Each structure stands twice: as structure tokens, then as C-alpha cells.
Amino acid sequence: SHEYELLKVFTQVGKYEFLSVGKRVLIQGWKELYGEVKDKELPSLQEKDKVSIKDILMEKKFTKPPPHYTEAELLKLMERLNLGTPATRAGIIETLKAREYIRAEKKSLISTQKGRELIAKLRDSKVIDIELTSEWEKKLDSIYKQRQGFRGYKEFLEKIKEWTKGEIEGVKGMSFELKEEVIGKCPKCEGDVVEKAKGYFCTGCNFVLWKSFLGKSVSRKQAQALLSGKKALFKGLKGKKGNSFDAYGKLDNAGKIVLEFVKNFTNQGGNHESKER
């Protein structure tokens, strides 16, 4: 056996305290077979020992937000938190998309301003309490196990109705101020372009960049690139004959997407060389 102690050492330097994490090997054991193995070992120290400062340097680093959930990850989380049932979880996510509380961006699910505003307003309500549906499931299960019959289910539903009525009255008194998020400037009139369910619309003219394009969805990132005059890469576009290809897109003076093929591609009619279309 290879035996070691895991150590956390706090070193006081002036008014600052520094943490060192490492290990102290007690018995090398099977690691003897491999010669010197580099582990982060800490020296033998006792409380109140004095140490010398070899060097002082300062590094500038930035924290990163946690990554957004993919749909598969969100489904697993919902299952773990007992939110919905196997038959309803996917439908709940689709409903959130349809009502524009979240949007899909590549594989990630991103909250919209509308969704964030709703959650902020309901912060003190049990409507967004993840334990609520779990409690209801447990209550229904106990009604069945304790054989309370129709009377038990009726009492349960009456309590749900009473609770729902109270929550609705609370929501009625709320005011929601939703400002549409500007994602870029219109190529035709320089007006603000905002994102909606089916596309990116100019608030000053009739320009619209539809989200559905040759069998693929135009993401917000791609739309922002196009609106700023840059090229956006589209992968897996579908041609008229069903061929699949990758291409760069750019907006022309009329606000239409012009494609430039990335490389040769094959369709039902044979090989075609890269060109603009």
C-alpha cells in the first residue's frame, strides 16, 4: 500500500493568510517500482514553524461563469431534482422555448431577458421553488400508500386550487418592464435590431434576418457577426437537392445573406468548386 496524508497548510505573512494544499508520503509502497514520482508534497511542518519567503509575485486572473446547460444536462438535472416526469420534462423545455423564456444557442440553453425578468419577479414565490413539485409528488404517493382514496385526492386538489388562486392574485399586482435586447445595427437604416422568436427585426424599417436559413438556425452570435459586416460560418446547410455543405455568409447591400463556399462539396449532380452565390 502507498500511504500518505493530505495536508492543508495556512501560512501567515503579515496580515495575509495563504493556503497550501498537498500531501505527505508516509509509506512509498508500490510507487517504489516507478522510481521518483512527482507529487505535490509539502515539507514536514509543525504549528508555529517559521518559513522563509523566497519570492513574491502578483498575477491577474479573471473568474469564469459556470457553463450554460445543454438540453441533455438540463433533463438530467430535472430528473435529479424530481422536476416533472420522464414523459413531461422534454415538453417543459420546449414550452419554455416557445414562450421565449429561454433560447437555444448551438448546444446551450440561454435565458432570455423575459425569462430573467419573470424569475426576478417571482423570487419570493413558491412557484419557482424546486422543492414544490417534489412535495406534491410525495403527497400523491402517500395518498396512494395510505389508501386515502378519492377523499384524499379531492382534499389534495382543493389545497392546490387554494394555493394557485393566492399565487395568481399576487402575480396580478406585478408590473413587468421588458426592454428588447439590441443585438446590432440594421444594414439598411442603421436602426436597432432586436431578437424575436422567428428572427432578428429592425425597429426602424422592414429589415428582418430570419432565424431559419437553409435548414439551419441562425444563432445570435452569427447574427451579430453578420450585422457588424463580418462573415459568419454556417455548417451543415442544406441545398435544393438535399446536399449538405459548409459556407461563410455575409450580408449584401440589400440585407440578404450571400454565401461563399468553404471547400468543394458533393451533391447529386457531382462535384462543385468553391464559389460565391
How far the N terminus sits from the C terminus, by CA atoms, comes to: 68 Å
Rg from C-alpha positions? 29 Å
How much is the average pLDDT? 84
Describe the largest sheet: 4 strands, antiparallel
Order of helices and strands: EEHHEEHHHEEEEEEHEEEEE
Spatial strand arrangement across the major sheet: 5-6-7-8
Residues in β-strands, percent: 25-35%
The count of helical stretches stands at 6
Q: Indicate the percent of residues in helices.
A: 25-40%
Shape: extended
Could you name the ranges where pLDDT drops below 50 across 5 or more consecutive residues?
Answer: 264-277
Q: What's the β-strand tally? A: 15
Structural class: alpha+beta
What keywords describe this structure?
277 residues; alpha+beta; disordered C terminus
Give me a quick take on this structure:
The protein is of the alpha+beta class. The protein has helices at residues 71-80, 89-98, 113-121, 130-145, 149-172, 220-227, and strands at 3-13, 16-27, 102-105, 108-111, 182-185, 192-195, 199-202, 208-210, 212-213, 216-217, 232-238, 244-251, 257-261, 265-267, 270-272.
Describe the fold and architecture.
The protein is an alpha+beta fold and 277 residues long. The protein contains 6 helices and 15 strands. The strands form 6 sheets. A 4-stranded antiparallel sheet has the order 5-6-7-8, with helices on one face. It has a 3-stranded antiparallel sheet with strand order 11-12-13, covered by helices on one side. Strands 1-2 form a two-stranded antiparallel ribbon. Helix 4 (130-145) runs antiparallel to helix 5. It is extended, with a radius of gyration of 29 Å.
